[in-house]
Every structure is written in C-alpha cells, then in structure tokens.
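We include the pair:
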Amino acid sequence: MTHGTAPSYLALNRAELHERARMAVARLADCRECPRDCGVNRLEDRWAACKTGRYAVVGSYFPHFGEEDCLRGWNGSGTVFFSHCNLRCVFCQNCDISQDVKPRGARPSPPDEIAGMMLELQRRGCHNVNFVTPEHVVPQVIEAVACAIERGLTVPIVYNTSAYDSLESIDSLNGIVDIYMPDFKYWTPERSRTYMKAENYPESARAAILAMHRQVGPLVLDENGLARRGALIRHLVMPGALDETRDILEWIRTELGPDTYVNLMDQYHPAGKVSQDHYPEINRRLTSAEFQEAQNIATGLGLRRLDERHAHPRLLRKLALLQSS
C-alpha cells in the first residue's frame, strides 16, 4: 500500500500525447487494433468484427458500485461502457449491446463528447474512469483522454478488457492507463473457438497481459484501499472447466508472480445463446463446490492477493443514510 500515486498520464508531454492520438487514429485506415486483423478502413466508417467505424459507440456511463472494492470505493468507479465487442461469447450477458449491429439508443460519440463523460464522472466523485470493452476503440480512447486531460482530468484510468488486445494497442496506451484489468477467460484454443469464436484468444491474451503487467506491475493501493496503479486479473470460473482455471492460475503464478491481484468470479449464469439445445454443457450455474475448488487451486498455488469483498466504511454509511431517508 502506498500514499497518493498520481495518474501516470499527468507526466506525459501534451504535444506527444496528441501526436500519439493522431498516429493511433491513422491506424484505423488498415485496422489491426485487435487480433482479428480485419484490415478494414474504419476512417471511412467501414467495419468488420467490431461493428464500429470511425467513432466509438458509448452504450452508457455512470458511477458503478459493482466493481471490486478497490475500484468502487465509496463514490463508485466511473464506468464508460463501449458498445460492440471483438469477441462473440455465446454466454454474453449483454449480447444486445455487444453483438447487435445497432444497439438500441446507441450512437457514435466523438472524442470531445467522451471526454465530457469522463469529466462528469470525475465531478461526481468517482475514484477513476473505467473504460469497459475498449479493445476495439483504443485510438478513440487515446483521443478522448488527450482531450479530457486538457480540460482537467486527474483521476486514474482503468482499462477493463477481455484481454483480446493487440500488442500495438497496448503499447500505445503506455503511460496513459494506470490500471489494467484483463479478464483471462479460456486457456485452450478449442474452448475459445467454441465459446468465443476466437481460436487465437489464449495466445493473444497471454501476450497482452504480459505487456500490460510490464507497463504497470502489481496492483498498488493507497491509504484508503483504492487502486492507483497496476494490474488486476479477473477470471470468470466456468462450469465444468476447472482444468482451464487451473492452467490460467498456474500461468499467472509463474509469469506474473504470487503477488498478482486476482479476482476469481463466481457469477456465471446461462445467458446469450446458451440453452438446453445450444451449448447444454454450460447451461447451468456454477456450483459452490466448483467455486470452492477454484479458490483452493489459487491458494494452493500460492497466490496471495485474491479479491475479497469488504465494502468501504464510507460506502456503508452512505447506503445506511439512503435507506433511512
């Protein structure tokens, strides 16, 4: 734990940051922003896998109190949810937003508009700006951050990703993102092909997470228990796939170290395209025994920083006041 680490982007040269944004946007002319390598010209509003043209599409933005305690604190994590996704997870709980060509109410948002959202979240007391599903809009994120910094942004930036990111994208975020939060979903190409329609997901995720960790290191908390910098790895434990969980956790322990902050998540439930007729093997909730075994695997491997929920006292007081009013 440390005291008041300032966001890394405040140390960046403003002219260099705007030049980095310009170069990132230029890459959209032959888009390889993720491992799909579609090669379409998104500057002309064409798109392929991600269904997103020149401008990012924001589905919603608000203070989020469902994130990890070190992100939500007592005023919430300032989430900016991008529509569309470069994966095709058959179990996606938000497939109407992530996979529909035109999600209801969604529209392209230019960088100054996204910057305004970030600053509004900061004014509302959010402890960070949390970009959710940003893998396909990294150039647009950099543009918006450059604009927001000019207008007074001072909170940490969280990159909340599936880890299906290109190394070029992650490199362009160096010094901009303070907290990387990848969700390492599957270890094997076979399950990745079946459930995410991306056979190269595991190798891409491993390379991307290593690059993220090299930039920011282990997660650092301040005196209030809030995340200031570092990597936080999520893993959604899937029914009948504890072998995947074990392989992922062993890799984290070996490659990133025992002090890596890991959130094992147990909230899987059938959604999206999953039914008794389609993908019946995952058409059930995770059992408590399965999740306990996942936790046992983690502790047995020596992973020392597993996420636990202990709401901040200020948040508990705020909730108590709301209930009594």
